[in-house]
Amino acid sequence: MQRYFVYIKYDGTAYHGWQVQPNANSVQAELQKALSTVLRQEIAVTGAGRTDTGVHARMMVAHFDTDMDIDCKQLVYRLNRILPRDISADRMLPVSSDMHARFSALSRTYHYYIHTHKDPFMRAYSCQMHYDLDYGLMNKAAALLLRNSDFASFCKSNSDAKTTICKVTEARWIKDGEYQWHFVITADRFLRNMVRAVVGTLVEVGRGRLSLHDFQQVVEGHNRSAAGESMPGNALFLENIEYKID
Questions:
Q1: Active-site residue flag, 214
Q2: What is the pLDDT of residues 155-212, one digit of tens each?
Q3: CA 212 to chain centre
Q4: Full-prediction pTM beyond 0.70?
Q5: 42-58: buried (b, 16+ CB within 10 Å) or exposed (e) per residue?
Q6: Predicted pLDDT at 158
Q7: C-alpha distances in angstroms, 119 versus 116, 124, 173, 192?
Q8: Active-site hit among 11, 52, 98, 150
Q9: Residues 6+ apart with CB under 8 A from 212
Q10: Can you give the pLDDT at residue 29?
Q11: What is the largest CA-CA distance in the chain?
């Protein structure tokens, strides 16, 4: 059996997240269906993570195993002929059998987009803020995330996560234009709903509702109810996943 990594991107608007759902469509289900159709055998894929309903990905990686001899470039072409228009395959490559799309990932990067001026062309992929934010203060709060390791305060309630320990290596707000900003966060792993909860809490800092000390207390308190609200999923993108591939 040979293991392959397939790199895809998708607009998550029409899907109930990445993971297969019993009564709703998912990106994983569409990819499995397309691969099974092209290869004419039942194919199951394992993704690098789980994006929630409405969340997008500029890079998602999944692996699958097959005993067929595959021309990767040709298979990508054929996949793109039958995948829905909101999902595309970028590339595919053979990897060693011990490589795992989820557990071999060294880091993942998410972007969250916000804008402060009504724009009909941004509404599907960015969250409009109706109040002024102090981005300098928000960046100071974001920097505190790199000094912490337990992010239980930003984990969805009743999560099945075995640990809430994550190593955040980057967290900052970047200005894209007069009315546009995006938040970049990179870590070795993320908890369910973590990025949207972090952004929601940073927005509370930006609005002056939480001080830097308050924000640190939220992180250290390990209490989800003390953190900010979860921001809408449509403005969140899984941007990049890093691996060490020989």
A1: no
A2: 987 666 789 999 999 999 999 988 999 999 999 999 999 999 999 999 999 999 999 9
A3: 26
A4: yes
A5: ebebebbbbbbbbbbbe
A6: 66
A7: 9, 10, 20, 29
A8: 52
A9: 137, 140, 141, 144, 205
A10: 97
A11: 59
